[in-house]
Amino acid sequence: MTIPTLRAASALASVRYEIRGQLARRAQEMERLGYDIISLNIGNPGAFGFRTPETMRLAMIENLRSAEGYVHQKGIFPAREAVVMQQQERGLREVTVEDVFIGNGVSELIDLVLRALLNDGDEVLIPSPDYPLWTAATILNRGRAVHYPCHASNGFMPDPDEVERLITKRTRALVVINPNNPTGAVYSREVLERLARMAERHRLLVLSDEIYDQMTYDGAEFVPMATLVHDTLCATLSGLSKIYRACGFRIGWASFSGEREGASEYLQALELLSSLRLCANVPGQWAVQTALGGYQSIRDLVAPGGRLHASRQAILAAVASSKYLQLVRPMGAMYAFIGVRTEVLPHFDDRVFALDLLEHKHVLVAPGVSFNAPYNSHFRVTLLPEPAVLADVFARIEAQLDLYAAAAGPVSAEASLRVVKRL
Predict the structure, then answer these.
(1) Residues 408, 413, 417, 418, Cα dihedral to 10°
(2) How confident is residue 413, by pLDDT bands cut at 50, 70 and 90?
(3) pLDDT of residue 414 exceeding 90
(4) Which string of DSSP letters, residue by residue, matches 372-422?
(5) I need a labelling partner for 58 at 20 to 30 A (CA). Which of 14, 34, 215, 316 fits?
(6) Rounded to 5 degrees, what are φ and ψ at 256?
(7) Cα gap 4→331, rounded to integer Å
(8) pLDDT per residue over 40-68, tens digit each?
(9) pTM recorded for the entire structure
(10) 10-50+300-422: which CATH number, 3.60.20.10, 3.90.1150.10, 3.40.50.300, 3.20.20.70?
(11) Does 10-50+300-422 match 54-293 in CATH topology?
């Protein structure tokens, strides 16, 4: 008897999330064989010794008795009220608790805000490079991801005129990721204002991913998008995972502001979807008020002398001394999107390199194509390890690139075929 093949949904054929894909699975296989792998593919603070602030842990523990049942589909009142107060401190006086949705991390909310919006063929403007969940969620919700370029020559900031030329009658939303993952760009006020006016002219829903909002360096100014968008609907997405080093709590929020008069049907659809998943993780919600209202320890980590600042400096120094690497200085978030000088290594391929670096140097990075970049000359690392670890990592990277330079190419044709089959 022939066993029928159980096939995956066809929509997944266009979905990629290589950050946790084949390379990560190969790294796990190697660890089971006894190899020590330095994993720089994911921004997971807990894996590098960062702790969630104790006050947040205590707030969750002390409220466990109140966390055993379902709660309102939008989230508990203290958590939503804390988000409202943060928005009001930023000048958004009209936001209320009814405008805030708590989710199981920003990841779930990305899916929900798009699912409530999109019909077949509707288009969403997404930066390239992007955080790939935005593209994946657009595709899985029957939409079409239209990538607007953020060129390295422009500090990885978008050109609003270039973005506007991509708008069609099917365009429904504009995604802004600021501070940016994977590039570390922090968008200027001028660029954000121009994007806001463009979205208002075309009545686009603005989806502003601000999970790294307080993680900036060297005096870079973070400007909340919601403070600039007035005449169309704006959703601000953020959460506990990065700034508060609480990835495992799985708590994020979407706060709506701007023009809501014509958006009631959409917001009702979003509440319906929130109801269908019953509610977000309840214990973690009890940490939100303490997190947003308490001491902001992230400022110590990103300031000179802080650990994230020191790790960033280690990467900048390593790239500056490299014969092969170049980098647009990351001004925010917890990543560096590193380019390889193609004039020195003209045959460089980021996927081949990532696999070779893992197999031979035991370092796991994310190739640039993982982030829907239209070129294969970049890779992303996280800033989270200690500076000494990063110095060691970049010595291994340089050694791997030395091998490529000596061979006048990255790898053999057989090795390239091996990568294609795996990825």
Answers:
(1) -70
(2) very low
(3) no
(4) T-S-SSEEEEES-S-HHHHHHHHHHHHHHHHHHHHHTSSS-HHHHHHHHHH
(5) 215
(6) -100, 140
(7) 52
(8) 999 999 999 999 999 999 999 999 999 99
(9) 0.93
(10) 3.90.1150.10
(11) no
- Is the pLDDT at 412 greater than 50? The verdict is no
Q: Where are the domains of the chain?
A: 10-50+300-422, 54-293
Helix residue ranges, H only, 174-230? 189-201
Q: Which fold has domain 54-293?
A: Aspartate Aminotransferase; domain 2 (3.40.640)
Nearest to 290 by CA among 75, 78, 105: 78
Q: What is the band of 6 on the pLDDT scale with cuts at 50, 70, 90?
A: confident
Q: DSSP 3-state assignment of 149? A: strand
Q: Amino acid letter at 21?
A: G
pLDDT category, 9, cuts 50, 70, 90?
Answer: confident
Residue 410 pLDDT = 52
Neighbours of 395 (CB within 10 A): 12
Record the tokens describing residue 122, joined without a space. 């509707």
Instruction: State the Cα–Cα distance between residues 269 and 273, nearest whole angstrom.
Output: 6
Q: What torsion, rounded to 10 degrees, do the Cα atoms 344, 345, 346, 350 define? A: -140
Task: Report d(CA 410, CA 393) in Å as an integer.
Answer: 19
Q: How far apart are CA 423 and CA 21, in angstroms?
A: 8
Collapse the DSSP code of 38 into the 3-class scheme (helix H, G, I; strand E, B; otherwise coil) and give the result. strand
